[in-house]
């Protein structure tokens, strides 16, 4: 049966351990981010076996499942909570990232009512223009949070490389640390966490450029895929093939490279364009847009070329490969983050967990 997502748990454990060790040497804790793989418990366990200091996810559904699977580690909700969902947030997550005082008030009220304690990380926008308050509002907002009963201000956090593509730097992370100091000095309490981003901050860790004071990172992509999309690099000291997607060849034929007949629209309403490069050998795979985000998969064999896909069929030019591909063979792909996200939650993609030790 295909498609199949083959998951090497040893490599995920190894990657987590490597990231954690590099960060630990600089006093930085690592949260394992589980949203990229729908928080599948086997993978979460591999992250924890590798030494992740805690878990984090952007979706309450995943966090609730983590709790139902018996994970008792501290979990941070990575997306600003919905006002309509504060009960679940307080019940299932220990910590949430926040930027709206209205939401924090609701969290506080719920926490008090249910006699739970909830901790918040105040997100500061240092330039990427996704979530977070601007620096000039940090002190005032921290003061407001400190007056709330039921929630505690655990620290500050920032997110980068997501909307604006802004790279983490000694400067913008230094600003976060500085804002933390200002809160501590002027409001008279300690902040436990200064959370300096995700995978894109690992480059600064490698180069020992993370300003002192940053003591947490939230890592998904690097651990899972060994890549750092924001900095456009493969992370040389991590495995990049913990996940391999494969699908079976269901047709293999030589055909012209340009369709014959009047061209209308393809299955998704787009007008396709073709260049005539003669007769090509093409494989059709039992894999389509319903299974995975096609732009997020890359053939392991660099001589294969994806020509396109519809809902259920992937068309691959196999003319240039040295492999002897036959009907019934499986073709393997590596995944980008969006490829992994989509394949993980597709119910059509079977999952196989590999673990040697
Ligand atoms: C997804 C996410 C992360 C993890 O990012 P990676 O690039 O996968 O390491 C960190 N922080 C927040 C707020 C996120 O939403």
Automatic annotation (TrEMBL):
GO molecular function: alanine racemase activity; pyridoxal phosphate binding
Top-level lineage group: Bacteria
Residue ranges constituting the Alanine racemase N-terminal domain according to the UniProt record: 7-223
Keywords: Isomerase, Pyridoxal phosphate
Gene Ontology terms: cellular component: cytosol
Cofactor requirement: pyridoxal 5'-phosphate
InterPro entries for the chain: Ala_racemase, Ala_racemase_N, PLP-binding_barrel
Transmembrane spans: none
Protein name: Alanine racemase
UniProt source species: Methylomusa anaerophila
């Amino acid at each position: 049966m295909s498609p199949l997502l083959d998951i090497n748990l040893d490599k995920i454990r190894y990657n987590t351990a490597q990231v954690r060790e590099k960060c630990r040497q600089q006093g930085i804790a690592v949260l394992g981010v589980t949203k990229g793989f729908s928080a599948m418990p086997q993978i979460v366990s591999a992250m924890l076996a590798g030494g992740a200091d805690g878990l984090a996810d952007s979706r309450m559904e995943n966090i609730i499942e983590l709790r139902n699977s018996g994970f008792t580690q501290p979990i941070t909700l990575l997306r600003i909570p919905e006002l309509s969902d504060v009960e679940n947030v307080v019940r299932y997550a220990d910590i949430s990232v926040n930027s709206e005082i209205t939401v924090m008030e609701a969290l506080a009220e719920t926490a008090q009512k249910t006699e739970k304690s909830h901790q918040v990380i105040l997100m500061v926008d240092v330039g990427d223009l996704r979530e977070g308050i601007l620096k000039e509002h940090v002190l005032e907002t921290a003061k407001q949070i400190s007056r709330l009963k039921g929630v505690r201000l655990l620290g500050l956090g920032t997110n980068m490389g997501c909307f604006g593509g802004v790279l983490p730097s000694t400067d913008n992370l230094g600003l976060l640390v500085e804002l933390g100091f200002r809160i501590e000095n002027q409001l008279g309490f300690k902040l436990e966490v200064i959370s300096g981003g995700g995978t894109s901050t690992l480059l600064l860790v490698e180069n020992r450029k993370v300003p002192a004071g940053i003591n947490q990172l939230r890592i998904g992509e690097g651990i899972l895929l060994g890549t750092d999309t924001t900095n456009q690099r493969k992370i040389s000291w991590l495995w990049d093939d913990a996940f391999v997607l494969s699908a079976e060849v269901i047709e293999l034929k030589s055909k012209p490279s340009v369709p014959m007949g009047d061209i209308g629209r393809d299955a998704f309403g787009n007008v396709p364009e073709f260049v005539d490069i003669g007769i090509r050998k093409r494989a059709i795979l039992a894999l389509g847009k319903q299974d995975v985000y096609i732009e997020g998969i890359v053939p392991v064999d660099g001589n294969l070329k994806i020509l396109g896909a519809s809902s259920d069929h992937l068309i691959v030019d196999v003319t240039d490969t040295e492999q002897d591909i036959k009907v019934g063979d499986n073709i393997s792909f590596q995944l980008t983050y969006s490829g992994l996200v989509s394949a993980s939650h597709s119910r059509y993609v079977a999952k196989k967990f590999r673990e040697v030790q």
